[in-house]
Amino acid sequence: MIRxxxxxxxGIAQLAHIxxxxxxxxxxxxxxxxxxxxxxxETVAHRYNIPKVYTSEDDLVNDKDIDLVFVLTSDPLHxxxxxxxxxxxxxxxxxxxxxxNSVDIERLIAAQxxxxxxxxxxxxxxxxxxxFLKMRELLENDNRxxxxxxxxxxxxxxxxxxxxTWTPLRSRNLSDMPAGAFEQMKQMKYExxxxxxxxxxxxxxxxAYQMLLGLGCHTFAAVRELVGLPxxxxxxxxxxxxxxxVSLLQYNGFIGTYEMINDQDVVQFDAxxxxxxxxxxxxxxxxxxxxxxxxxxxEVIDSTKKDTKTTLYxxxxxxxxxxQLIHLYDCIVNDKQPKSDFNDALQDIVLFEKxxxxxxxxx
Length: 363
Description:
By secondary structure, this protein is of the alpha/beta class. 38% of the residues lie in helices and 25% in strands. It contains eleven helices and 14 strands. The chain has helices spanning 11-22, 38-47, 57-61, 78-87, 102-113, 130-140, 159-163, 181-197, 203-227, 320-333, 342-357; strands at residues 2-7, 28-34, 52-53, 68-71, 91-95, 120-123, 148-155, 232-239, 244-250, 255-261, 269-276, 280-286, 296-303, 308-316. The strands form two sheets. Strands 8-9-10-7-11-12-13-14 form an eight-stranded mixed β-sheet. Helix 4 runs parallel beside helix 5. The chain is globular. The protein starts with a strand and ends in a 6-residue tail after the last helix.
C-alpha cells in the first residue's frame, strides 16, 4: 500500500486525484494533505476522511508515513514543492506543467539523480487514455508513412462543466489565505516566465507561453509519444494577445499543425489528434477532464478507390487519471521508470520556450 500526501487541496485535487486514489484502495491510501488555506485543507480532510493535516509542506514531505507526494498547487509552486519532496526521498507526481521553464526542470532532474530510488512523474494523463493507447498501437503496427498530422485544443474552460456537476471548494473563495499570496503567485509566474523567455518578453509572448504550459503541454506530449518532436518550428501565429495560437511544424517526412483557443464562449471541448496516412485516417478526441469516467474512442477511416470503411474502437470507460495512477503504482512497486518522467516533460517546455520567443506583436 502506497501512502500519499497531497500538497494542494484545490479543484484538480478534489475533482480528479482524490476520487481516483479512493477508487484504487488496494494500491493507495491518502495519509495526509496540506494547503496554504487552513480551512480548505480541514474541509477536504473532513470530507474525504484524510487522517492528517499539516502546518507546512515541510511537515508533510518529512513525515515518515508518507511514501508519495502529489504536487497539486498553483503552477509557480511546482518546482519548489517537487524539489522538497525529492530531497526528502519521497516519490512525487507533479500536475502539469511540471515547471514554468526548462531551467527549473533541470534542477529537479539533478536532484532526482542524487536520489535514484525516487520515482518522479509529470501528470500527463492524456497519454494514459485508452483511445490514445489504441492509436499508438495502430501506428506502431502499420508501416504506412504519415503524410500529415493535425492536433488542437479548442475548448471552453472547465468552470462551465464543473458548474453543472459538482463545484469544489477553492482557496480563491476563502478569506484565510496568507496575506498577499495571490499577488506573490502572480509575481512568481512573471519571474519564472522571464527565466524561460527573457526579461524583455512581451505580454503577448508571456500569454502564449502560459497557454502552452497550461493546455498545450497535454497534446504536444501525446503527439511527441506518437511521432516524436518536430524537427523545426516553421511558423507561429497568434491573436487575442496571445490567447489564440496556431503553429506550423516540420516533422521527419511530414508536416503538422497545432491550434489552440480556450477563451471562447461556444460550449465544446474539441481536443483532438488526427493522423493522415494517405488512405487511412486515425482520429482521437478528448473530452473534458473535469468529469469522471467519460468514454473514449479511437476512429479509423480506411479508403480505397471503391469503398470506405470506418472502424470505431471503444467506447472505453477507463479513466485516464486512474490509468495514470495504475502506471505509477507499477513503477514504484516494480522499480520501473514512468514514461512521463521529468526528462520526458523537459522536452515540451524547451519546445514551448522556442515557440513563445517566435511570437510577434499583432500588426
